[in-house]
Amino acid sequence: MDAEKYLKRIAVSAERNLDLEYLKELQSSHMHKIPFENLDVTRKIPIMLDTDAFFEKILERSRGGFCYELNGLFQHLLSELGFQSHLISCTVKKPDGWVREDSHAAILVLLNQIPYLVDVGFGDSVRQPLPLTGEEKTDVSGTYRIRESGEGIYDLQRLEDGKWRILYRFSDKPRQLNDFHDACFFNQTSPESHFTHGDLATIATKNGRVTLSGLTVTKSEAGTKEKYEITEEEKREFLRKQFNIKP
What we know:
Layout: H1 3-9, H2 20-33, E1 36-37, H3 39-42, H4 51-60, H5 67-81, E2 84-94, E3 97-98, E4 104-111, E5 114-118, E6 130-131, E7 137-139, E8 142-150, E9 153-160, E10 163-171, H6 181-189, E11 200-205, E12 208-213, E13 216-221, E14 224-229, H7 232-243
Antiparallel strand pairs: 1-11, 2-3, 2-4, 2-10, 4-5, 5-6, 7-8, 8-9, 9-10, 11-12, 12-13, 13-14
Protein name: Arylamine N-acetyltransferase
InterPro entries: Arylamine_N-AcTrfase, Arylamine_NAT_domain_sf, Papain-like_cys_pep_sf
Family: Belongs to the arylamine N-acetyltransferase family.
């Protein structure tokens, strides 16, 4: 993989120590530069679990992707840079219950014998490495912590209205990209998948986030939220301007 081209896309220098500050910069910059988006899914363009294909899409064509693509490629970059990392499987919890088991891919990075959760493919979520020690971390998207719920099983939680809500549950067991084959196919094809119901694109901004869901735009900025509708004709220009996507 051309790590130099990847780092240029996310505007991060390669001349850094492999420490927590560098990992934090890599994750934050990635989330500010590369959108989470499902446009290939809604256009029925098959997504194969192949890092060369991810590289061509995300770096050669300046696209985004969903979790397998974003975290799959980012974990590959981390390994190329020298970080000790591996993919993990996660089960997302929605307000109405759990989704398909082990269908979300994220990353664990080991630094100074401490494992950190790193995730650049979950949309509006924590923007920095989160230690599995239970320590709370806060950024513009909220306050987060990880709690162990069983041996080798952990919950990513966000503080909402004074209560901790589980975003997803994960195992620290190393996974390979191919382990997500069935889940990736499900999320591209099943009517039960959130990603098959309409276009979705979202990207972090300095003080908030911009999201397109169908024809609804949501912009959050410093705690305020604006929501409005656009037309199909306007959507093409919006995708190009806000996400650098040319559908």
